[in-house]
Specification:
It is built from 8 helices and 9 strands. By secondary structure, the chain is α/β, with parallel strands linked by helices.
Length: about 260
Amino acid sequence: MSSIDSDSVDLNSDVGESFGNWSFGDDAAIISSVSSVNVACAFHAGDPSTIRATCTAAAAAGVTVGAHPGYRDLAGFGRRFIDMEPGHLTDEVIYQIGALQALAAVAGTRVSYVKPHGALYNTIAHDEVQAQAVVDAIRAVDPSLPVMVLPDSEIQRLADRAGLRTVVEAFADRAYNFDGSLVSRSRPGAVLLHPDAVTEQALRLAGDRQVRTVDGSLLTVTAESICLHGDTPGAVALAGAVRSALQDAGIPIRSFV
């Protein structure tokens, strides 16, 4: 690995995924390690009280809030594809962003970007119809909102064409295929769990703009933000380890907004 430069990087994580009496993840601890948080909008996870409390904690920590809309799929945690009529998908994404905007405002902060969740995120990487539906939703709500994307994805192409700002992200805790796509969660090893593996990948992404794929090759990924999933086992320790490793390498951590 070559020497790491001093360019800053954003660290983002998914939060606000508790629901009713079901507590999920340690949002406060995650928020203390990252610079941006993707707040569930109550379709795949979360509820109004959780959303408000999460936004309040992010505001207190000076962490940027993003909307994390997904398919209406609480039982499947938004990780199951839904074949939706595009206009309906547009309205559902508008609804989710708007709900988060209201609760964020009450909490003393605002929604500064959009990052689709789970199966929706993966679908719009290659599906032109659903990608356009998401682009239409963001433009309808606020065309100044950036959207987080996988590099060289359909959503990136359509968002760029529509004049939306795209923010390329990479994943510190996910395995990559040789073509730059994420290894399916149904496959063993799709999620990186060991702190050494996660920190090594984060450092390579931030410093070398590369990721090692499952076939051993190095793929160039120029990302503005690095994601650490809040629902990964040991997520709090992983987030802390990545933050420390980046800081020790002289790489400032700050939001892209």
